Amino acid sequence: MTQQLSEGLKINFELAEDIKRSYGVIGEANNIQEDKEILVKKDEFYKPIKQREVSSMVTNSSRLICTQIKEVVERKVVPHEIDHFIMVGKTLLTDGFIEMMESVLGMPVAIGRINNPEISSLVKENNDLSGQKYLTYLTCLGMICEDLDNKTVGSLALVKPAQNLVIKTFNRFKEVYQEYF
What we know:
Elements: H1 2-9, H2 13-23, E1 37-42, E2 45-50, H3 51-76, E3 85-87, H4 97-105, E4 109-111, H5 117-125, H6 138-148, H7 165-180
Parallel strand pairs: 3-4
Antiparallel strand pairs: 1-2
């Protein structure tokens, strides 16, 4: 979504990310007044950007993302075997994204949460994970929670987990990093 905004509005990526977070509304762009503008500083001047245009771009790219996710899910599992969908990540914070995903998938979508008390306290105490920073690592933290609950997650149980929570967490991060990167 941010890349499309950056290219479509001819602004840098960081500014496009800020605009997406602050003004990106997924849904009917026609519900936004046509004259509503966002002023952004570009070089030494202020450039007006139509909020309706931002909403339209964000909606189109989110629909594409949701459709691609649906296609991947349908290749992996028969859709009628799924009764709900859990998602994580910063994109979910974009106003209207969950509703778009529910519409495309045709099923309820929930936000994944950390439910393991040991991991919750780790997130609260660690400055690198405080605030909404943990959202970047939520998938990995969820896998760690699954492992701590003695559930297997795919083929990630490659190393026998240590008894110490810190070592367990480190090993899990290492496994996920090796698996995906």
